Amino acid sequence: MTELETLIDELVAANHILFQQGVVDGFGHVSGRHPTNPDRFLLARSMAPGQVTHADIQEYELDGTKVDPDGPAPYLERFIHGEIFRARPDVMAVVHSHSPSVVPFGVVPSVPLRCICHMSGFIGTSAPVFEIRDTAGPASDMLIRTQELGVALARSLGSNAVVLMRGHGSTVVGANVRQAVFRAVYTEVNAKLQAEALKLGPPIYMTAEEAAASAATNAGQLNRSWNLWREQIQG
Amino acid sequence: MTELETLIDELVAANHILFQQGVVDGFGHVSGRHPTNPDRFLLARSMAPGQVTHADIQEYELDGTKVDPDGPAPYLERFIHGEIFRARPDVMAVVHSHSPSVVPFGVVPSVPLRCICHMSGFIGTSAPVFEIRDTAGPASDMLIRTQELGVALARSLGSNAVVLMRGHGSTVVGANVRQAVFRAVYTEVNAKLQAEALKLGPPIYMTAEEAAASAATNAGQLNRSWNLWREQIQG
Amino acid sequence: MTELETLIDELVAANHILFQQGVVDGFGHVSGRHPTNPDRFLLARSMAPGQVTHADIQEYELDGTKVDPDGPAPYLERFIHGEIFRARPDVMAVVHSHSPSVVPFGVVPSVPLRCICHMSGFIGTSAPVFEIRDTAGPASDMLIRTQELGVALARSLGSNAVVLMRGHGSTVVGANVRQAVFRAVYTEVNAKLQAEALKLGPPIYMTAEEAAASAATNAGQLNRSWNLWREQIQG
Amino acid sequence: MTELETLIDELVAANHILFQQGVVDGFGHVSGRHPTNPDRFLLARSMAPGQVTHADIQEYELDGTKVDPDGPAPYLERFIHGEIFRARPDVMAVVHSHSPSVVPFGVVPSVPLRCICHMSGFIGTSAPVFEIRDTAGPASDMLIRTQELGVALARSLGSNAVVLMRGHGSTVVGANVRQAVFRAVYTEVNAKLQAEALKLGPPIYMTAEEAAASAATNAGQLNRSWNLWREQIQG
After folding, report:
1. What is the DSSP annotation of D91-158?
2. Beta-strand (E) ranges in chain B?
3. How far apart are CA C152 and CA C135, in angstroms?
4. Among the residues of C158-221, which ranges form H helices?
5. Could you report the predicted ipTM of this complex, rounded to two decimals?
6. Is residue C235 over pLDDT 90?
7. Residue C228 and residue B50: Cβ atoms within 8 Å?
8. What CA dihedral angle connects B7, B11, B14 and B19, to 10 degrees?
9. Which of A123, B51, B140, B156 lies 20 to 30 Å from A39 when distance is taken between CA atoms?
10. Which residue of C has its CA nearest to D121?
11. Is A76 on the interface with B (CB under 8 A)?
12. In this complex, do C224 and B107 lie within 8 Å of one another by their Cβ atoms?
């Protein structure tokens, strides 16, 4: 396989894994930066992730334009991907989801999502929350449906791995598709564990140093999960 | 397929989808207004939704009378459907369920079900709660088993998309079967997310304008979920 | 099939349904009173409910003695069944389980299990809790492993449909196997719903009259669930 | 089968059971002491437990050295197993996991994991919590990646059956593979039940005597679960 074929293959698998792991339902999407043209990215046409096949992946410019103008209808929120790829040269893959344990942390300002265990060290000390009202005003449909909103979201993400989106979901980035998928799954896991811990009493969170060290270790363990998850989607 | 055949086909699928998605268990039902005779509706005979086949769908007058007097035993609560179809000419499909995350919001008066994220904008600012004691007194079996109770429930629903029923469940309406199913699934999702958010701290809810804008956008996205869910019930 | 063959067939199905519905795991058991000899009952040999076959069901005297002294090893807790059948002539089937949402209500004296919705009207105003320390002292292994403990548990059950067992689980009775299974499943459902409601705020419980009326209605609806559940275990 | 073949067979099954029961995901591991050489143990190579086959099990010295220096890459945390086997001659099997209901108890110092029901009597009065900062300082990657850390963890475990690990997971030991698996599953169950009970109100915990008596009884019931779980992983 060429690098591009490998990327498409991994994106198809990533769509099915994220569905199988409960990170996405009929909504949510995952993209990868073009392996030889960093100003383009690949993303499925507008459809449920769990049904994506190779033929459904198409190429986009960073501004969200389809490279093939006759291609099928794109996701309304492709600007999430394009503007993050533009702002973050280190990012090679992006997952956007409404993963269920994460949404509550996006709507409760008093409780930030923080790193509760070593599997989610990539969260660092806490995840920022994007408030769409600051850019789109008080009557938006909550979607990142313009370049302007994509730029604002990318700014909110900053140099983090995860940004929560109030009343909507979250976006997670990685140095490759496998890492973005790993982080999306363990962002959901962390949110669930942190919520349960908070119901028991005040938790001890990871220090910034523990989080960084754990994240570095886990960067070398991605294939352990990836191989398992690929087997699981093959049923 | 004729319009009527298409409706029956969608109702059978809707029964299985609602079961597969955990909105109904052995109880609950989904109806559609007759496509050419707005004074009639279609609903399964009294049975578990997950076992409904084409042959189990029968036709009813709005007052709950079976069109075929020799047809099989109807649901005790067919009056939910008839009286909502009568009161709401815009409604073409109705789902009644005991979906598990919604029931608690129906029994705790201090906490209304409110729109917590964009997928459930159709909830608007909050969902009304129907108190059967106001009509049936303090010793009913909780069921909407008469026209009078159906009328009272429809009045409580008003112009909303969702009405909770104290100690019982909820009823959700839509402009077509796909929308009613979508709303039933995401009413359950919203209830689960809102309950989790409330355990963390005071949430930021969607504004009425955000809810309305999100609902309008999602009305154009119904098939993304529907296609996925149909595939899932084919197993 | 003879009445006895029908009972055995239903008990085998009940074992698998209770496992499939998450009421029992490797532990728990379900019995039926002998259809022609009310002083005997039928119960599986000591094994996981999900693996029970027709050949595993054996006959017991009410005092817990195996009718066939050479039969395989019985459950340590067969006295639950025998002493309830002795004390309650109206009871024809008994389910004992550690169903997960019910156990917490058995260990928190400040919060009784109460009827939160119409599906569990059989709970009545609240379920009693059996404290084994009152009979077995402070160092028992928590099991109903003697006739004396079975008698004490039956006394705690009284005329109720459900009795919780502190630090252990619960026992549910019915007028037939289908009703005992229905009640075991919806005791678990009620506990889950009540716990979630309590986390939101003070709930409105069903009145005793509402509970009784709902229970009477549901007694006529048992087959709707039973038919579904039988299909699911054939899965 | 030789004793060694039997152990390898049980370890492969244990890996799949722990995955199927939700105790491990892509991470976590289970070991057994060598049946004839108590100074060695068997453990899979570094991989997801759900994918382990007979060929993936290899032999280690208690200090974590692979007996076959050319064998595949070991788990970074094999020192958990080796140092516990060294410190506890009674222990013949060890499970390390991040089982989801247990992690919160490891990060909330105000709420110890305690025995809430008879299935988890092996927990005793409460489970100790290992704080890695005491040995590795404030910037570790949280892993038991040295003999020194293994020794510290074994000291924290003491004579208990379970030790929690702050921000990480837990480790459970047994007199054989079946018991270690049983305890790993019911540690997760106990954590879930205790957390739910605490949300209702102050629970009555098991006395030390009740816990000990229950643990002794359950030691004789291991095969009931094991037989079920083996059937379940055969799908």
Report:
1. --EEEEE--TTTHHHHH-TTS-----SGGGGGGTT---EE-THHHH-TT--S---SHHHHHHHHHHHT
2. 29-33, 40-44, 57-61, 93-97, 129-130, 162-165, 169-174
3. 7
4. 177-200, 208-219
5. 0.97
6. no
7. yes
8. -170
9. A123
10. C141
11. yes
12. no
Residue among A205, A207, A225 whose CB faces D48 most closely:
A225
Instruction: Give D187→chain A minimum CA distance, Å.
Output: 16
Question: Residue A104 corresponds to which tokens in the numbers above?
Answer: 């509550």
Quote the minimal CA–CA distance from C112 to chain D in Å: 10
Q: What is the pairing mode between strands C57-61 and B169-174?
A: unpaired
pLDDT band for B10, please (50, 70, 90 cuts): very high
C119 to chain B: which residues are within 8 Å by CB?
A: 27, 98
Nearest to B154 by CA among B74, B89, B216: B89
DSSP letter at A39? T
User: How far from D117 is each of C3, C104, D95, D211, CA to CA, in Å?
Assistant: 38, 9, 21, 8
Between CA A72 and CA B5 the distance in angstroms is 30
| Residue A163 near residue A129 (C-beta atoms within 8 A) | yes
Contact A167 B210 (CB under 8 A): yes
Distance separating alpha carbons of residues C102 and B209, to the nearest angstrom = 42
Question: Which tokens belong to B121?
Answer: 């904008």
Contacting chains of B (3 CB pairs or more, <8 Å) are A, C
CB A180 within 8 A of CB A112: no
pLDDT range class, residue D174, cuts 50, 70, 90: very high
Say yes or no: A201 contacts chain B, CB-CB below 8 A.
Answer: no
Nearest to C200 among B100, B111, B139 (CB): B111
Tokens read off for B200? 């963390």
- CA separation, residue B216 to residues B116, B161, B181, B191 (Å): 16, 13, 16, 20
Say which amino acid occupies D153.
L
> Crossing angle, helix A177-200 and helix B177-200, to 10 degrees?
60
Query: Has residue D235 got a pLDDT over 80?
Result: no
The token pair that represents B207 in the structure block: 């504004």
Distance of CA A55 to the CA centre of its chain: 22
pLDDT digits (tens, 9 = 90+) for C78-108: 999 999 999 999 999 999 999 999 999 999 9
Q: Are the Cβ atoms of A118 and D46 closer than 8 angstroms?
A: no
| Residue B61 annotated in active site | no
Nearest CB partner across the interface for C117, out of B46, B109, B168: B168
Structure-token match 């899979």, residue found: D44
Q: Say if B233 is an interface residue toward chain A (CB within 8 Å).
A: no
Distance (Å) from the C-alpha of residue A118 to the closest C-alpha of chain D?
Answer: 6
Put simply, whether A167 touches B (Cβ < 8 Å) is: yes
Indicate the pLDDT class of residue A120, thresholds 50, 70 and 90: very high
CA distance to partner chain C, nearest, from residue B101 (Å): 8
Task: Write out pLDDT tens, residues A130-180.
Answer: 999 999 999 999 999 999 999 999 999 999 999 999 999 999 999 999 999
Output the pLDDT for position A136: 98
Q: Does A47 touch chain B (CB under 8 A)?
A: yes
